[in-house]
Amino acid sequence: MSASGKPKVAFYWCASCGGCEETVVDLAEDILGVVEKVDIVLWPVAMDFKYKAIEAMPDESIVATLLNGAIRSTEQEEMARLLRRKSQFLLAYGSCAVSGGIPGLANQFPREQILKFNYEDAPTVVNEAKARPQVQFQNNGHGLELPALRNVVRSLDQVVEVDYYVPGCPPTPKLTAAAVGALLEGKLPARGSVLAPDLALCDECPRKQTRPTDLQITEFRRPHQLLADPEVCFLAQGVVCMGPATRSGCGAQCSGGNMPCTGCFGSTSRVRDQGLKILSAVCSNVAAKEAADIGRTLEGIPDPIGTFYRYGLAKSLLRRKVDLPNP
Using CA atoms, how far apart are residues 31 and 24, in angstroms rounded to an integer? Predict the structure, then answer.
């Protein structure tokens, strides 16, 4: 507790886009109720706090930290370990913290290849000297140290123990408010729980009545290649939808906007690997039976990893390119 008697809460971001921070802001008037009940001791995106102040706090003096973003750099790993030590509850907040998220797709490539492209080979880069940021630099007796990139992207629980998971890219304000409310009221489920419904997204999809029982896919098309019928199941239209392999709780916002689910809420507790789950479902419903015909059908999915593991490669059975060294 703080001097005011309010529980201390922290928000922190690692390898992320900032969307999870926007969700906290999107609590709108509800955020005023949260601020009245807690003492926010760390929130870099909104307030000026110093890391040394957090280091000086007693261990477990922060009631809860909501940490979003994957772990890619040494600084992010250090902050994850620090906040784990200072917090009674650590929540993996958003897809990147829960399962590696879109940053985890970098695990398909060696770190050197990523750095070379971004600093030397990208079409928009002019860098004849091939200069790159240095981890350590000395100038006139002054030293500067920058975070180093790890070889692979990891989810939060691949670095430290996580108490609860709040999925989504980003989590909805409704889920966020429910999670914060459960923390403040002490009405939490067993540690390790995902704070979202344990049902497939199809259960809350407004198109579920049009999902065929005998699906025979002859062609896959990407969303920009057709004007999808807003009332018909995407899979019935030959568009890959991650709904059957994805946890519900988002309110089916994407399908409501006539876009297929991309899987940001991760899988239910009954699915070990989200990508393999939907891959199995899709392939078993391909109408073609001959290898050449099957190949032509699957050409409609030009980026299988990005399609089936957009948010979960870091925690999948594939996890990373086999020859990448450990973090």
Answer: 7
Closest CA to 288 of 275, 273, 299, 278: 299
Q: Which amino acid is at 272?
A: R
State how far the alpha carbon of 129 is from the alpha carbons of 125, 126, 145, 203, 298, in Å.
12, 9, 21, 55, 43
Are 103 and 73 in contact, with CB atoms under 8 Å apart?
no
Kindly list the distances between the CA atom of residue 174 and the CA atoms of 26, 92, 187, 246, 323, in Å, as whole numbers in the listed order: 10, 16, 16, 18, 41
Calpha distance 296→213 (Å, rounded): 24
Q: Are 153 and 70 in contact (CB under 8 A)?
A: yes
Distance of alpha carbon 266 from alpha carbon 19, whole angstroms:
17
115 within 8 A of 132, measured Cβ to Cβ = yes
Instruction: Give Cα 288 to chain centroid, integer Å.
Output: 34
SS3 265: coil
Mean pLDDT, contiguous 10-residue spans, the chain (327 residues): 78 93 72 75 88 95 96 97 98 98 96 95 95 89 91 97 97 89 88 95 93 88 94 94 95 94 96 93 89 92 95 94 84
Distances (CA, A) of 115 to 17, 125, 319: 19, 12, 20
d(CA 34, CA 28): 10
The answer to whether 165 touches 194, Cβ cutoff 8 Å, is yes
